[in-house]
Amino acid sequence: MILGLRALGGLAFLAGSAGVLAADDVVELDEITVSGRAEAEILGASTLDAAGLASGQATGNDTAGLFKDIPGVSLATGGGVSSLPTVHGLADDRVKVVVNGMNISSACSNHMNPALSYVAPAAVGKATVMAGITPVSQGGDSVGGTISVDPLAPEFASAEQGTLTSSKFGSFYRSINDNVGVNASTAYATPDASLEYNGSWNRARSYNTGDDGPQVVPSQFETTNHSLRGALKTTSGLWTADLSGQHLPYQGFPNQRMDMVRNDAILGGLNYENDFAWGRLDGKFYYHQTWHTMDALPNRKGATMPMESDGTDLGYRLRAHIDLAARHTLHVGNEFFRQTLDDWWPGDDFYPQDFISVNGGQRNRMGLFAEWEADWDERWTSILGLRNDTVWMDTGSVHGYDNSFVNAFWADQFNAADHAKTNVNFDVTALTSFAPDATSRYELGFARKMRAPNLYELYAWTGGSQKSMINWFGDGNGYQGNLQLGSETAYNFSFTGAWHDAEQKVWSASVSPYYTHIANYIWGQVDSIGRDGFRGMHFVNIPYADLYGVDASGRYNFLPESPAGGFALRLSLAYVRGVGKDGGRGRPCPYANATPGGKYLCEAEGWSLEGYQAPDKVNLYHMMPLHGTLALEHTLDSEWGRFSNSLGVELVDRKTTVAKTYNEPVTPGYVLLNLKAGYQYKQVKLELGVDNLLDKAYFHPLGGVYIYATRFPYSPNQLPAVPAMGRSVFVSVGVEF
């Protein structure tokens, strides 16, 4: 595959050279006026501009990392390309993640293959986070924000050009883990058709910790991504077809008991857009297939225990945007999404049969929505939407590695229960924005959103020791599903104030406080406590959870046009607090008809387990403490090219408010210093920098428990956190033709 990328890079160079040779034939075109209706601007949404994307793409391997500097967004770290973005304290399935218009679900009991892991950073042309209120037209079945990544819109040649070619090539190196990566893209277009290829590969060994510390084992990874897109332009519309594939032979997870030893996937989609006299119509059909295997990588030095899962996603989306009047638009739509999952753990000479974890699991969702967008005048705008999503799920019979008492007891009860579940969800969104003058704008929003449980939350059935393999939280605990789970219902309130100078060139600032109340919050309830400090848990709906916080950001160009270039200060700050009402129910039983008996079996609600009684109030898991960044930025444009430099300080408070139910580790506060310099001359760009310049030893608050270190002596009540990366020098080069 590496040789293939090199060959494609050579073809890209030849294609680009042809475009350069033809550049002297300049044709002046007539002025073209394009009219249309711009999408509503939402203050709570952050779209990365070209500079923001380029900064993360130059040395990036984890697409979720593109959003790390946006206030309100944090990353729950795990594998090198599989971080889980957290938005206002909500993560994973609670956040809607859309990749090129596709819903992609994790086909893994540890969620090692989240949606953003299937697209390389270099292939992203547009990246948006709606950290606050999300319009119903952007999707349902979530209670948090929305993240979407898309490629750039296809480019076509003009009639005078006839054909258009373009190519890009980039490469980078990062010292902390010998991370090397390459990416290449090339495109060919006529006035009515275009074809584009994008490919990337990168590999890294396990990284070292700060203060000349040891390696974090295992944290190595390798991944290859290829994508191909074709587009056809009609008189008033556009057809696009996408096909992409991923080969990920290994990825270490220091906060899991297993690693990824294979993740092969193929994704395809067909998209249609067309303008009519009444408005616009767009549609999307897509398919995704994943083959996934977990096991222990060699440097973990643990016993092998392969775990297999195959998953598919299939869906469509159809939306009509109807112009009711000059300032009013009605958005209506329908979408269908189907996930199927088989999850099994192969037997061996010791185990006589495969362990069937999820047998033919299916999760179907049909959604309908209507949304009214109004621009009342130059100052007032509003969005009002209503959405219904019906989710129905089912799965087949299961069995353990053998027919021992524990496996047979739980399998028999699960098989005898009714697996078919239906959840009917309703979402409501209301947003209004007011701009009293040219330098300020205010936005107030409310949303009621619902999310049905995922397949593992419902159908992870075992009550034996094997349940420790069901975990996507990075805490080392093991989780059991609950057939009685209901949908979460969230009530989101947000306010945003944004201010800037009249020309939007000197200064800007924004503040966004928010509050979310979630009824029937899905929570891990303690089931058993091991001598090593880890816990057996199962999912329950607790009465409610409250999350509140504030995001703030600002920028000041204090020397915008000095002889030495432009100088600016950039600041961001974020805080979130999450508290849940547990109800003190102790060990509620995951099966209504379970009978008492045995350590892993259920008794009546409210009794304590080995001295552990569930508290009435709990701290929610993975809440990022107060944190912020302060950066001094410099740019200089000259006849020799463009110079850009930045000196950034990252500050994170001590995390002492932890989820004791999950045995979440306390992490100390830290300050990191990051330095970066860039130079661009025409089509060539070079970047050089140092992350964690002072080689600070620290622990990311959302890094989880360092499972490998628990092989050595430690206190069960103070599980070790995963150490973060030490000083890392990076360099990247990019060329456009």
Describe the structure.
This protein has 737 residues and is mostly beta strands. 6% of the residues lie in helices and 50% in strands. The protein has four helices and 32 strands. The protein has helices at residues 2-21, 50-58, 405-416, 455-459; strands spanning 45-47, 73-76, 84-87, 90-91, 96-99, 102-103, 126-130, 146-150, 164-174, 179-189, 193-204, 221-233, 237-251, 259-276, 279-295, 307-325, 328-345, 355-375, 380-394, 421-437, 440-451, 478-480, 488-500, 507-529, 535-562, 565-581, 617-619, 627-638, 641-652, 670-681, 684-691, 728-736. The strands form three sheets. It has a 22-stranded antiparallel beta barrel. Strands 1-7-8-5-6 form a five-stranded mixed sheet, with no helix packed on it. Strand 3 and strand 4 form a beta hairpin. The longest helix is centred in the N-terminal third of the chain and has 20 residues, at 2-21. The chain is globular, with a radius of gyration of 26 Å. The two termini are 23 Å apart. Mean pLDDT is 88; it is low at 1-38 and 591-607.
Q: Key features?
A:
mainly beta; disordered N terminus
What oligomeric state do the depicted chains represent?
single chain
Largest sheet: 22 strands, antiparallel, barrel
Distance between the termini: 23 Å
Structural class: mainly beta
Global shape = globular
Query: Kindly state the mean pLDDT as a whole number?
Result: 88
Q: Percent range for helical residues? A: under 10%
How much strand? over 45%
Radius of gyration: 26 Å
Q: Tally the helices: what do you get?
A: 4
- Report the strand count: 32
Low-confidence stretches: 1-38, 591-607
